[in-house]
## 1
Amino acid sequence: MVRKPFFYDITLRDANQALVNPWNKEQKEVVFKQLLKLGVQGVEVGFPIASEMDFESCENLAALAAQLGSNVVISALARAKTTDIQKAWDAVKEAPKPRIHVFLAMSPLSMEHVLQMEPAAVRKQAVEAVAFAKSLVGEKGDVEFSPEHFGDSVENFDFVLESLKQIVEAGATTINLPNTVERYRPMIYVDMVRKVADALPKNITISVHCHNDLGMATAATVESYFAGATQMECALNGLGERSGNTNMFEVAVALHNCGVEMDMNLGEIYETAILTSKWANVPIYAKAPLIGIEAVAHRSGIHQDGASKTKNLKKGAYRPIDYSLIGRQENDVLSFTSQSGKTAVYEILNHNGYPVDLDEAAELQPVLKEISEHEGELSDSRILEVFKEKYCNLNGRVIFHTIDVIPGENRFVFKFHKDGVAHEESISAEGPIEAALLLSRKMGLPVELNSYRQSVVSNADKLWAGRALSEISLSANGKTVMGRGVSSDTLVANMRAVFGGINKLYR
Ligand code: KIV
Ligand code: ZN
């Protein structure tokens, strides 16, 4: 049987409680609508006892879910206290699928030092709280219970497991296992999750809720799915207390890559991430998996080569997914540094509308590498500048200045420098390219024309977009080169291409 993960978002509660400026009712509504677009199955909308603003926000989202006829579970958090539980219920009871989420710490450290209660009293309070919550939700809603700091309950695991059995009997149908502070190996937590999943009745949903203190929350959550957990408690962009909660996007993509079926709209991930960062006012760090600006960047020559050779495949040599899966436009972004190779030059120039071949790219690479050793990463426009200096409008033995067309006479007057000396030559020919080729012979630098192509520089090249690009293949003495010229004047672009080619051949 397919067991689809149940994505339960905790951004509006666990992440919100850690924001510098927690969201108000209107702001929560905006995030909630995005969560519906993303396609999560449950949303913990808040902690109603925390403030009147949070109560009203929860009430508002429960009403909105009803108005939209949404199937999403709308949950509110409550301590194991009747006042909290009643408040939580009052806040979400109008939702089509309301839930009360009760929590109480059961780790040795918390019971002794924070709650300062005996374990038996803690168990009793949890069971009574869940029974009370169940009496409120009736058949309409359900109850989730979390033994806070479950990840710390390595030493008193048997006590927690026995308590959870009693809590299930009292009416909880989802048992959430928080790794409230990540301290140990993911597998220690995952093994505990597996034991709980094996011990509780099969109709009970096992949920995981990991914090990311050591950066392993995603690993623990993903592995827990395979150990029997179905509900994944995660936050957008991994927001939350301290280093955050589990990042929803990483879990969803990892499970997807493992062939797990799910109902999330993965294509909404990237947009959601960008919006969340803006709404929460928490930047996405550059190296963040999947959503960071750098996640698609390749700078070393070997990686660029692999990325380029696999760019049309779903699975790239150096990327975990085809980024269109999460709605991200860029897949492999190649930029140039002193570590980069000819592939980057080839890709960057082609991307910017200059169809060079790999040999030409290889010729330019050492030049760019040397520049990059002083300047660091070179922007596309810097690379284009160097490229144009070297290959377009090239200065060499012959420096082209102007061409005048004499009307009605099929005559062309060229002004140029050759080997430092100024020249003016008049050539009769059918057209300007033929005239330039005749001139090359006259100068003692004969070249043969192989092909000629004219296009317009693409919009990708911000500086030169819309200008004429001439590409002329010329040969001499068994060598073939490509001359290129760019100008807003087609005739000048042609001449620059011819003279550029001549200089390449006779450098
Ligand atoms: O991290 C945690 O333990 C929690 C609980 C309230 C579920 O957020
Ligand atoms: Zn938490």
## 2
Amino acid sequence: MGLDKHTILEWVVRAANCITGIDKVVVATSENANDNPIVDWCTKAFVKCYRGPEEDVLDRFLGAAEGADTVVRLTADCPLLDPAVCSQVLRLLKTTDADYVGMANWPDGLDCEAFTFDALKAAAAEAKLESERSHVTPFIRNRRHRFQVRTLECPLPGLRKERWTLDDPQDLLFLREVVAYLPEHRPPWYAEVLEALDKHPGIRVFNAATERNEGYEPSMTEGSFEVSAEFLERAEAVIPLGSQTFSKSRLQYPVGHAPLFITHGEGGRVWDVDGNEYVDLVSALLPVTLGYGDPDVDAAIRAQLSDGISFSLASTLETELAERLVEVVPSAEMVRFGKNGSDATSAAIRLARAYTGRDHVAVMGYHGWHDWYIGATSRNKGVPDAVSDLTTMLPYDDLGAVCDYLKAHPSEVACLIMEPMNRRDPSLGYLAELKEMLRAEGTLFIFDEVITGFRYGLGGAQELFGVTPDLTTLGKGMGNGMPISAVVGRADVMAEMTEICFSGTFSGEALSLAASIATIDKMRREPVITELWQRGWSLAKQTRRLIRRHGLTSVIQLVGKAPWMLLEFADHPAARKEAIQTLFSVEMLRRGVLILGSHNICYAHNDADVAWILEAYDSTLARIAKELETGSLEAHLPCPAIQPSIRVR
Ligand code: PMP
């Protein structure tokens, strides 16, 4: 197959020969007879050719690379390869401690990766998954704890949208057009390709058509989530659901269309087991407030690690952290620690019951997995009625409902626990009047600030709204991902803690305490909270603009406060809201954004991350708008619509 008078393979081999630092070019092909013409061409052109198994591409590649200490891998679907860029990739490998160097944000069709022969040998010896054998480098890329992986970033913004690769007949037409404007006797530089495209914008029509068709395909990029899907089988053999958390499981991420396992994170980004990179808008379900691998928090954890993790008596860090919470959280006079948010909310409820001598509790929002709360939701299997009957879910921002409830249970209600805000702002005066109403009834007022704490403000929503509860529960963002939570509150109520049982082996575990101290100190030292608000707000504003531009305001809304914004989907005559949300998730994931119905901003999210998210939004919303217009959204869903595991907000 020719581009001009040369075949595609000739274009690629010519570019390979121009890479600085290359000693030998080897064409690797399969033993299949269909590939005989490749071997014939190599013989005529005096290019070394290696034939290996058709299915085990990794083994074939190892054979082709035998004798080298460094390997550059190019693919024959990239005729416009730029040898100068490939030389940079190779140089980066040779001049650093890297075992592998790949490329990020370059046009699709300049693909080049370089790696050590040792890394390749280890991959060929150890890779077991079919998806790791039918490709060459996933085994290396997915093991960053073992291999040093580096990336050559494209210096020009916006180029990752360019498509110069050869996958289908339209691509071939595009490439044939563009090469007419490129130098004849040497491989082109990517800047020359860009210039040709700028001067002759008509050529882009071919490539734009390919992009669009791809976008309308209801199927995923082939093989993108293979390792995730394969690993799920292994996980589910030993772990029910293959995950510890509903919201991190296949219930929310459709198998084959989404990542299911993450290998590592850095700043505001994460990588899955297939080697896909995402801007992460989930932030581990909100504990990641600063970012993955925050240097200050990690240093604190490492320093503590050398002293120990869990001790036989209390650690002094408990007091140091408690003192900080008393300083920053307006209602905190005394503090006790737990591990999960559910520990803190359950301890607060037991404490309120013990303090008031009453059994009934009212709830507003989500408060964890323990019996007293979950029994009042649709996920109540396994909870005795005797327990569920004591808990009542009340609507937010409705004083009348609370008043009626208190009247129905005179002197029986121990407490009301609520998320001070999630989706919508409270009406003016609501929280203050609620506090007064509860006080008059002798009912304790508890703010569940497991999410809003260290996010709406260092002192949480109570600082923002200027209303202080009797008790507050904290968790998530306190330790930037380390497992720690707390109950804080009025000293006279907290004193009752010595009478109830809230006592755990790990509640004073020192790595989490050290991480929380470092997190809070950083939040006080640097404009973390301001950044969460500003970046969250800027992202929300631009997202809303895109929703408007694509005419989707009646089906998608963004609500909440800037540091934690939630997406709301509504039914459309052509599709149910669950179907719209599913297409939204799948499309955003395809475009490298990990999102689960909310914007969970962290301090490490930067301008490039926001630009990446907006780019994904733009194409995703375009697809949703088109599918709704043609009435084909439900029919084109690549998987069954995702259902919420519990709906409580
Ligand atoms: N309260 C709120 C407001 C929460 O969002 C959560 C967790 N999503 C919890 C309590 C329970 O926290 P955990 O999952 O850490 O037990």
